[in-house]
Structure formats: C-alpha cells, structure tokens
Automatic annotation (TrEMBL):
InterPro entries listed in its UniProt record: Glutathione-S-Trfase_C-like (IPR010987), Glutathione-S-Trfase_C_sf (IPR036282), Glutathione_S-Trfase (IPR040079), Glutathione_S-Trfase_N (IPR004045), GST_C (IPR004046), Thioredoxin-like_sf (IPR036249)
A Gene Ontology cellular-component term: mitochondrion
Protein name in the entry: Glutathione S-transferase A-like
Single Gene Ontology BP annotation: glutathione metabolic process
Protein species of origin: Paramuricea clavata
Length: 249
C-alpha cells in the first residue's frame, strides 16, 4: 500500500462522526470527508426515530443532542458548515480543493455556502411543518404559503444556475463546498417535490449530474435507497398520510 494511502487512513481514523440517514447537515459533512479523501473515519449511524441523537454518547460531544456530532482527536465541532470549513482549512492540499484559491471564485463559493442557509429555512418550513404539526391541526393556508415561498427561493437558484449555464457545478467548472452544501438540500426537496424539474429544468439537470458523483453516491442516505419520497406538492396530499420515514431514518 502506498505511503500516502496509509497516511490518509491514519488521519481518517482520528475522526469520529455520529450521523443520521436523511439529515442534510450530516450528508454535507460526509460529502466533504469523501472529497478530501478522508474515508476511513469512525462512523456511527444513529436513528432519529429511536431518539439515538439524545443519548449520553452524543450529548457528551454535542450538548444540544443534535447530529452531526464530530470529533477530530480532541477537537469537537458540531455545526456542519464549521466542520466543512475545518476540513478544508486543516487539509487544504488533500483531495478536492473545496474553496478556490482565486479570491473572486472563493467569494462566490462562500456566498452560495452561506446563502444556502436561507434556502434551507425555506424547505424546512414546508417539510418540518408537516413533521411537527399534528395532522388534525395543519392549516392549508399555511402549507400553501410555505410552498409558495420555497418555489420563489427555487426560482432564485435556478437563475444562479442559468448564469453558469454550460458549467457543471453551482459556481463554475469545479466542484466546491457550495455544491457539498447545496446538493443534499436539493435532494431532500426532490423527495417532497418529485416533479420539480418540470418547473426548474436546470435544477433537475444539476441534480441528475451530481447524483452520479462518487462522493455523493458513496454517502447517499442508506434508507433512501430502499424507500421513495412523498409528494407534498401533490394537490391531493393529505397530512394524515404523511410518513416521516420517507425522509429521516
């Protein structure tokens, strides 16, 4: 085995990651680990449905009892964007360069990374409203408003892709941290809006392209491979029929 490969494995094994299937924050961290070539880390999948993330084992690392929970030697980080930055800063010359050297390109990548937090709030309004509101208490006008705001947000990101039409990735010709942060969000949206590409064709093309990337294939939420999503945008959708296991494991 090559010396560089052995070194990479030793570095990877100093990482521990607690994660859950279907978690967007967990997935973006796992994509970044793969892209940096840090694949042999200590990985522990936990169940949201069984409340594993509230266990003492997790709370000892993350007092909020949330995932991801991440440790590198004696360094602890639990915010997913912070972990992504930490990996790039700590291992700038390993694997994929997640933030470009060119200042203008880096600025655009960082803009999209942090702008994706607004994007995240919009889809969470749609999905988490159904997750956390008893079916008998859901209000159609609230669901309609939440969906409308998400569609408006998606339109903005469609224009971003339009401005880079012909390029493969979100900010240009190279995969960056922006893609690692954005793609898992788009993937969970497509699970609740499977006809999205009819309205947003560039978004659909982007999803289809990146779905084939090795780092994304290798970290795809395991239970998503076994069950499909649920169309929350279907006019006939009934909150009483909502199945959380189609999103979170």
């Amino acid at each position: 085995m090559a010396e560089s490969s052995l070194q990479s494995q030793c570095e990877s094994r100093s990482f521990s990651l607690f994660w859950g299937s279907g978690s967007v924050p967990c997935w973006r961290v796992m994509i970044c680990l793969e892209e940096k070539g840090l694949r042999e880390y200590n990985s522990k999948q936990l169940s949201f449905l069984n409340q594993d993330h509230k266990s003492d084992e997790v709370v000892d690392i993350n007092p909020r009892g949330q995932l991801p929970a991440f440790k590198h030697d004696d360094t602890i980080l639990n915010e997913s964007l912070g972990i992504c930055h930490y990996l790039e800063d700590t291992f700038p010359d390993k694997g994929t360069k997640l933030l470009p050297d060119d200042q203008k390109e880096k600025a655009l990548a960082l803009q999209r990374v942090y702008e994706a937090l607004t994007f995240q709030r919009k889809w969470q309004q749609v999905l988490y409203y159904v997750v956390h509101t008893p079916a008998d208490e859901t209000k159609q006008d609230v669901m309609t408003k939440n969906k409308k705001e998400l569609i408006e947000e998606l339109q903005l990101w469609e224009t971003y892709l339009q401005s880079h039409k012909g390029d493969f990735y979100l900010t240009g010709s190279k995969f960056t941290m922006a893609d690692a942060v954005f793609f898992p969000q788009l993937a969970i949206i497509i699970r609740m809006h499977p006809n999205l590409s009819k309205t947003f064709p560039l978004m659909g093309d982007y999803y289809n392209r990146l779905s084939q990337r090795k780092s994304i294939q290798d970290t795809w939420p395991p239970h998503w491979k076994e069950v499909g999503g649920q169309d929350l945008f279907d006019e006939k959708f009934d909150p009483h029929d909502f199945d959380v296991t189609r999103f979170f494991g």
